[in-house]
Amino acid sequence: MTYSQRARAFGALHQPGTPLVLYNIWDAGSASAIAQNGALALGTGSWSVAAAQGYGDGEAIPLELLLQTVTRITAHCDLPLTVDFEGGFARQPETLTLNAKKLVATGAVGINFEDQIIGGDGLYEINEQTNRIAAMRAADADYFINARTDLFLKTPAPDRHEDLLDEALTRAAAYAAAGASGFFVPGLTDAGLIARITEASPLPVNVMMRPGMTLSAMAASGVARASYGPQPYVKAMQQLGADFAALE
């Protein structure tokens, strides 16, 4: 398939009520482990990719190193790959487009693109973030832009999340109009609130799985994509350390 065909096929995997499961990876080896066990697609986690190379999260990993890692994954695995691209490693639209073109050139067919200000405070205002999404879309007509809002992560108290629904949906509509393909609400864990998002969002909704959340409950809530963030990397490293400690 051509790049455009692969990107559109990846987008078609996002069906509300039948979540695409992305058990997030960090290199070609972890990609193979997931691919060999029935995955339909692959997704990196920014925290995991950075940690595997000795960097912190928040665009601390050099962009060129990230691109090299992604290139090795796409060369090694045939499954469609989406990349956690954080804030695009730039603020200005022109640079965002250039960075996104570099990512598309690796063969990745999707990105996560977040609205928190990397290295700053709070979220981008909606107008600026929609301009940023439009700049990312300018890199390619077909790749999947998963527009992430950090509203819920920035407000960790679950009892305050209902108050954020209106702003989240306002952002979802604006991001869709700017060219986003999906809407990502990490930090939101309540199935009832998630259902209200999925019912009103113009875009398929992605959640980040947390302890206590189940795929069946997310399917019932209308979720189209369920990802696991840094959890797979953390578990793998814990198991590695435990195996070493248990040597006799």
The general outline is globular
How are the strands of the biggest sheet laid out side by side? 1-8-7-6-5-4-3-2
Helix-and-strand structural type:
alpha/beta
One letter per element, helices H and strands E, the order comes to HEHEHHEHEHEHEHEHEH
Major sheet: size, sense and barrel closure? Answer: 8 strands, parallel
Q: Approximately how much beta-strand content do the residues carry?
A: 5-15%
What is the typical, i.e. mean, pLDDT? Answer: 98
Give a count of the beta strands, DSSP E runs of length 2 or more.
8
Low-confidence stretches are none
Distance between the termini: 50 Å
Radius of gyration: 17 Å
Query: What's the helix count?
Result: 10
* Helical residue percent band: 40-55%
Keywords:
single chain, 248 residues, alpha/beta, eight-stranded parallel β-sheet, 10 helices
Structure explained in plain terms:
By secondary structure, this protein is α/β, with parallel strands linked by helices. 44% of the residues lie in helices and 12% in strands. The protein has helices at residues 3-12, 28-35, 46-52, 63-76, 93-105, 126-137, 165-178, 191-200, 215-220, 231-245, and strands spanning 20-22, 42-43, 81-84, 110-114, 144-148, 182-184, 205-208, 225-227. Strands 1-8-7-6-5-4-3-2 form an eight-stranded parallel sheet. Helix 9 (215-220) links the parallel strand 7 and strand 8 (225-227). The chain starts with a helix and ends with a helix. The mean pLDDT is 98.
